[in-house]
């Protein structure tokens, strides 16, 4: 059994699960939705994350996209994705 | 302070000869305390910290701009909708693009299959932009364009279309959303990694300060952050924090605040908690003004004034009993007006299902016209100013937002730009939004929060409503259009322009100017974006587990 509250009078009452239930006090029909699980991002996690690299020329640190060599946004020097 | 406001008000123009209630009582322009000056944090309209609005005359001088977001199917259909909205009294245009355009992908790319024209209009080349604004003078009508990842490409298309209409860029007015930081935080429509994209944005701002001075360069957006699950204070803090990050990026480039900050504008959500939303808008102006003055050291009044567009909360609309959405939208719009918005989009009742039908879009427009013309709420400036409850709520939202801003600044060791980029990289923002969204959903699930027609006062059966369907022919027509452009253009000129763009991306050249050159010779959006991808790569975010 799950404890829910009536959306109109806030009376707490027990239900068996998702579905539509009249409030035992005021009679208004409430819809109880399925319980939401604690979100987990593990399944959606990308296999590859863009790495942060530091420009050897000026010391500016930035994220490099999926490209072998990127220009430093600060000074234009070429920075490699793989160190 | 009062003398100054009275003088500025007298110098301003009123939109009517007299302002009266429905019972013919005169309405004063501004409510004030009976004794003494208002608290300095509240102050007067048009005066620091602008809690009561940025204009001394409020809506007595000029009403907010009704700006309905529109775009669907092909450019011809959208052009017709634009003309219809202008005929019905709308003041400015706001373009919604389809998903391939938003992601920088051409309509004839395999990845676009089934998506062309579905959630907005498809724009692949300058020719589409020319047809989109056929008969609409770009030197006179202000245009807002909601696009971020490839924003500068679409802006280049608009500038070339204006040029070909004979419009002087100095007269072209409008807004480009162009807010990539909130894409990493909430909406997820990015292309390049953060730092290279920030370079593109600063290039565009630098370009506009010289070439398109009336253009609003970024619409710094809390809307998508709120819709992703933020609380009011999180929406405020994350959005203003993004704004300060853009300011710091421009300062690092060597730009001067008065040259770029007045052209930064904001975009907020109007959610359903009426007073909290009003407080949020008032607090937003106060925080922006204080930071710009005290942290960034400007005394330029135009740079202190936060201007914002508002859209009612799409996330508050329900599929069940959809007619109730008209009521929700009206209440949210009223909150935006009482919070002093500069422009407003009201959602249509059927947008929870699809893009709106013409009828639903008209009801949405009429909703704000009823508020403007019939309710009298625009007849006095900031009517809730001085309410103990509203002022206290404003203080509370402001304090909550300041706590979050402080945390972001700490993450950046004193820099909002570094703090925001670090927060994105470490999933601070994304995690905070997920947590808030989860708490809200849990409360709905247990009945702690009521949504009429969804978890309380539910009907036995839901009555279906008519919705807009985009015909498949739209995609076929758009593919033909882009094929036509490819066959007519000077291919050697296109290749040369794209080569120049690629070389420019590898150096410190201004990419905005190079994108305009590529647009002129009819390079497609996808070609320009793919060229830049070859230099910057695409971004893959980390995910907090």
Q: How is this structure best described in words?
A:
The complex is a heterodimer of chains A (83) and B (545). Chain A is rod-shaped and about 75 Å long. Chain A contains no helices and 8 strands. In chain A, the strands form 4 sheets. Chain A has a two-stranded antiparallel sheet. In chain A, strands 3-4 form a two-stranded antiparallel sheet. A two-stranded antiparallel sheet of chain A has the order 5-6. By secondary structure, chain A is an all-beta fold. The termini of chain A are far apart. Chain A has strands at 2-5, 12-15, 19-22, 29-32, 52-54, 61-63, 69-71, 78-80. Chain B is an alpha/beta fold. In chain B, 50% of the residues lie in helices and 7% in strands. Chain B has 22 helices and 10 strands. Chain B has a 5-stranded parallel beta sheet with strand order 1-10-9-8-7. A 5-stranded parallel beta sheet of chain B has the order 2-3-4-5-6, covered by helices on one side. In chain B, α3 links the parallel β2 (69-70) and β3 (93-96). The radius of gyration of chain B is 23 Å and the shape is globular. Classes of the chains: A mainly beta (83), B alpha/beta (545). The A-B interface holds A 3-8, 10, 20, 28-36, 38-42, 44-46, 48-50, 52, 60, 62-67, 70-71, 73, 75-76, 81 and B 192-196, 198-199, 425, 434, 438, 441-442, 444-448, 450-452, 454-458, 505-508, 533-545.
């Amino acid at each position: 059994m799950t404890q829910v509250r009536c959306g109109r009078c806030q009376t707490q009452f027990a239900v068996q699960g998702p579905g539509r239930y009249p409030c035992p006090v005021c009679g208004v029909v409430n819809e109880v939705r399925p319980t939401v699980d604690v979100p987990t991002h593990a399944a959606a996690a990308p296999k590859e994350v863009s790495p942060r690299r530091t420009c050897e020329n000026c010391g500016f640190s930035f994220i490099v996209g999926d490209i072998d060599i990127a220009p430093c946004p600060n000074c234009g020097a070429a920075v490699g994705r793989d160190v | 302070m009062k003398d100054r406001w009275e003088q500025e008000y007298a110098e301003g123009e009123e939109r009517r000869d007299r302002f009266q209630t429905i019972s013919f009582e005169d309405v004063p322009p501004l409510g004030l305390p009976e004794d003494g000056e208002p608290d300095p944090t509240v102050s007067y309209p048009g005066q620091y910290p602008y809690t009561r609005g940025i204009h001394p005359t409020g809506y007595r001088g000029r009403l907010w701009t009704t700006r309905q977001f529109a775009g669907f199917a092909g450019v011809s259909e959208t052009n017709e909708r634009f003309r219809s909205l202008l005929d019905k009294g709308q003041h400015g245009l706001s373009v919604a693009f389809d998903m391939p355009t938003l992601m920088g992908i051409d309509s004839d790319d395999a990845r676009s299959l089934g998506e062309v024209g579905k959630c907005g209009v498809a724009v692949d080349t300058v020719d589409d932009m020319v047809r989109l604004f056929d008969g609409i003078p770009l030197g006179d009508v202000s245009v807002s364009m909601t696009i971020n990842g490839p924003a500068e490409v679409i802006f280049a298309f608009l500038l070339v279309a204006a040029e070909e209409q004979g419009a002087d860029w100095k007269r072209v007015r409008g807004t480009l959303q162009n807010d990539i930081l909130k894409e990493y935080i909430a909406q997820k429509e990015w292309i390049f990694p953060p730092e290279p994209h920030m370079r593109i944005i600063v290039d565009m701002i630098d370009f506009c300060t010289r070439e398109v001075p009336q253009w609003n360069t970024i619409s710094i957006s809390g809307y998508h952050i709120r819709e992703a699950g933020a609380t009011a204070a999180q929406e405020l803090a994350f959005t203003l924090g993004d704004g300060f990050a853009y300011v710091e990026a421009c300062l690092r480039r060597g730009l001067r605040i008065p040259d770029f900050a007045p052209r930064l504008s904001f975009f907020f959500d109007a959610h359903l908690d009426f007073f909290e939303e009003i407080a949020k808008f008032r607090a937003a102006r106060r925080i922006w003004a204080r930071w710009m003055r005290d942290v960034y050291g400007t005394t330029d009044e135009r740079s202190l004034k936060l201007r914002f567009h508002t859209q009612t909360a799409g996330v508050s609309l329900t599929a069940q009993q959809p007619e109730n959405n008209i009521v929700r939208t009206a209440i949210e719009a009223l909150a935006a007006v009482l919070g002093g918005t500069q422009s407003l989009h009201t959602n249509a009742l059927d947008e929870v299902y699809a893009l709106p039908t013409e009828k639903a879009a008209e009801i949405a427009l009429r909703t704000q016209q009823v508020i403007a013309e019939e309710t009298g709420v625009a007849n006095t400036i900031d009517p809730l100013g001085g309410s103990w409850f509203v002022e206290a709520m404003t203080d509370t939202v402001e304090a909550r937002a300041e706590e979050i801003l402080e945390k972001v600044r700490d993450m950046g060791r004193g820099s909002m730009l570094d703090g925001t980029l670090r927060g994105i990289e470490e999933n601070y923002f994304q995690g905070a939004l997920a947590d808030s969204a989860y708490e809200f959903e849990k409360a709905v699930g247990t009945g702690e929060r009521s949504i009429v027609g969804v978890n309380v006062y539910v009907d036995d059966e839901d009555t279906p409503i008519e919705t807009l369907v985009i015909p498949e022919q739209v995609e076929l027509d758009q593919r033909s259009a882009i094929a036509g452009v490819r066959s007519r253009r000077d291919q050697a000129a296109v290749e040369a322009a794209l080569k120049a763009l690629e070389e420019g991306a590898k150096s410190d050249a201004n990419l905005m100017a190079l994108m305009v050159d590529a647009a002129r010779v009819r390079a497609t959006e996808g070609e320009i974006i793919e060229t830049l991808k070859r230099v910057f790569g695409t971004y893959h975010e980390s995910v907090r587990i």
